[in-house]
Write a structure and sequence with these properties.
Low-confidence stretches: 6-27
Number of helices: 0
Structural class: mainly beta
Strand content: over 45%
Largest sheet: 4 strands, antiparallel
Radius of gyration: 19 Å
Number of strands: 30
Helix content: under 10%
Strand order of the largest sheet: 5-4-3-30
Mean pLDDT: 89
Order of helices and strands: EEEEEEEEEEEEEEEEEEEEEEEEEEEEEE
Distance between the termini: 40 Å
Length: 351
């Protein structure tokens, strides 16, 4: 089975072929600017949004099959492709030259979900497999698969923190499409053994950190409920919990605020100290018809204080919503196309 990001759709793999990539612009990006990379899961393309000018440039790159997660590490973007009707892979993208430098194939049918890179020398990449219940260990310079460990069931989020790996097991029943109580595992990266575990609530998915605590989002997008858990990594205990007014989607942390979005919920701002709700932003009047928010990114521009929201629709119009935090309003709606499935947003500051 293939699980698409955020638990919205589950697919059966029918055929497999290698997903390609192409460069459709022939110029490097100007230095000293910040640009938002917009990953569209439906069209399997990447577009660029320029905050300074408000311009959106579609179809700059083609992704692999079923793009699903992306991080930045030391000037490169690492895009996880789950591989529906193709080969699962990691694409390494140079965001300045806008080229795919490497494509690392992963085991057929592994349905990779998320990736973390350990800041050691030489760096290692760690990838969760939804269908194989495994964590893959890769050489982060060549993509060579070095080792793997089986742990949990239906793995999703992964985080490298304090020289350990934190892996989220959803315990999702892939045969019956039913969620369950999930588990957070702590792995020793040197020996690939489980050091500890913590039982969470229903269907935990993504994990993030503010540098001190861990934050995990879970719930059920179909049933329309969600939860954020704050976890003390030293004691591996839940220190705060917040129920969400709708289904879960994604979360990102900046300073003392957790920004949370979901398919059937508003943008929610939580205080990192106790997960108290600071603000709920009703997006009803600005969302495209039948679209839901799939991804969130917070600008590192300290002047504009913008939050970018990926409004996704696999049939109708898609958009990136620009929310101004001080003004408490959506100040721009950037149309990204019909049926493109806009879902991942990552802001990059160019050197």
């Amino acid at each position: 089975m293939i699980k698409q990001r955020h638990g919205i759709v589950t697919f059966l793999v029918l055929t497999l072929s290698l997903g390609g990539c192409r460069k459709v612009i022939d110029h490097p990006l100007p230095p000293g600017q910040h640009v938002l990379f917009v990953v569209n899961g439906g069209s399997e393309t990447i577009g660029l949004y320029w905050p300074d000018s408000g311009r959106y440039e579609p179809d700059v790159l083609t992704t692999g099959n079923t793009p699903n997660f992306m991080i930045e590490y030391e000037g490169r973007l690492y895009l996880v492709n789950s591989g529906f009707q193709g080969t699962p892979s990691i694409q390494v993208i140079d965001p300045v030259q806008m080229v795919v430098e490497q494509t690392w194939p992963l085991p057929i049918g592994s349905n990779p979900m998320e990736l973390a890179i350990s800041n050691i020398s030489p760096p290692l990449a760690w990838v969760t497999s939804w269908t194989r219940n495994q964590v893959y260990k890769l050489d982060a310079q060549t993509g060579t698969l070095m080792d793997s460990v089986t742990v949990g069931h239906s793995l999703d989020g992964i985080l490298w923190f304090n020289q350990k790996l934190y892996v989220v097991s959803t315990n999702y029943d892939q045969q019956n499409w039913q969620g369950d109580t999930g588990t957070l595992y702590v792995l020793d990266p040197d020996h690939l053994t489980v050091l500890d575990s913590l039982t969470l609530g229903y269907n935990p998915m993504h994990i993030a950190t503010d540098g001190h605590s861990l934050f995990i989002i879970g719930g059920d997008a179909f049933a329309g409920f969600g939860t954020v858990w704050k976890i003390d990594p030293t004691t591996l205990s839940i220190v705060a919990t917040q129920d969400l007014p709708g289904g879960p989607g994604d979360l990102v942390i900046q300073d003392t605020v957790v920004y949370v979005v979901g398919w059937s919920m508003p943008l929610v701002l939580l205080r990192t100290t106790d997960l108290a709700i600071l603000r709920e932003v009703d997006l009803t009047d600005v969302l495209p018809v039948e679209a839901g928010v799939m991804g969130v990114e917070v600008s590192h521009d300290q002047i504009n204080h913008s939050v970018y929201l990926a409004a996704s629709n696999w049939m109708g119009p898609n958009a990136v919503l620009i929310y101004d935090v001080p003004a408490d309003s959506v100040v721009q709606v950037v149309q990204t196309g019909d049926g493109v499935g806009t879902q991942i947003l990552r802001e990059v500051w160019l050197p």
